[in-house]
Amino acid sequence: MGKNKKKKKLKQKTVQELEAPVVDLQVKPATVDTEPDVQRPMGREYPKSRSQMPERQLFEIAEYKPREAERIGYSNYSYWKSVWANFLKKKSAVIMSIIFILLFIFTFVASAIGKYDINMAPDPLNRSYIAPNGEFWFGTNAIGQDYWAQVWYATRASILLAVLVSLGQIALGVVIGLVWGYVRKLDRFFTELYNLIDNIPTIIYMTLIALMVGKTLWTMGIAMIAFGWLATARNVRNLVFMYRDREYNLASRCLGTGLGRILFRNIFPYLVSVIILRMALAIPATIAYETTLTYLGLMDITKPSLGMLLSSARAVFPNAAYTLWFPAAIVSIIAITFYLVGNAFSDACDPRNHV
Predict the structure, then answer these.
(1) Structurally, what CATH architecture does the domain formed by 102-118+150-353 represent?
(2) Cβ atoms of residues 237 and 181 within 8 Å
């Protein structure tokens, strides 16, 4: 009991005492070291040595400036700016991109500068398979129509078809892959659907649609979308498995974040590089598949496409080689362009390559 009574009471300080500096910031001329470079022997005290100097002389107090603090803490990093900067470093991909853009623009210009249009009247008796000359720049086809107009119209139609079909396949595959990989209850359903479509050759589905619905260009394009999403969905589903149970996704679920927001805000950014690569590879693959369908007679050939031109050129290649050279060169440019651009853009989209 006696010890408790002897407890020391804390002395309360006034406001002036609390605001008073702990260290004397006033410079005292008597304590300034006039010879700072002189080596002092140990064990002796010098009234004018640095150990006796006040803190104001030893250190410079940094003034707090809110604007400077904000500028130092600000990061100028932008994901898409970094993607674009990394893509521009790939010179071959940039050059092929420019060539492809100019090629696509020229498909619209070619019809204006050409001497004949796509609807030129056929004359198989007088103009069949004329070699390239000043009148017919790319020669003529089997029924005497200008091959220049045929090639550039076919290029425009095939590029538009390939891009639209590829976009449809990628969009459908990404949505199904995200749901397939994240929602556990639907995993069995999508797995069985995938096996059902994948185990039957796609050409059988395409044949049934061509015979039952029609062989028009856009009908077959929709059919290619309906059965072409499998590879993209499988890749996306496997990647979603990797990110589904990460801490930030668990925290989002605990906070009540909706399914759509988790899929497209938390997980989708990690899939951009894979999606772009799949997109770049799907465009030349669509052109090649369109060639196969045309060769098998499963696609309407009233209007020319690159697949139709390549298919019709096979039979006459020894005698009219130019009918194969021009469409084959354009298909090669498209395939090489999207291969290089796809790989370059896929690498640029990877955040690990951003410095």
Answers:
(1) Orthogonal Bundle (1.10)
(2) yes
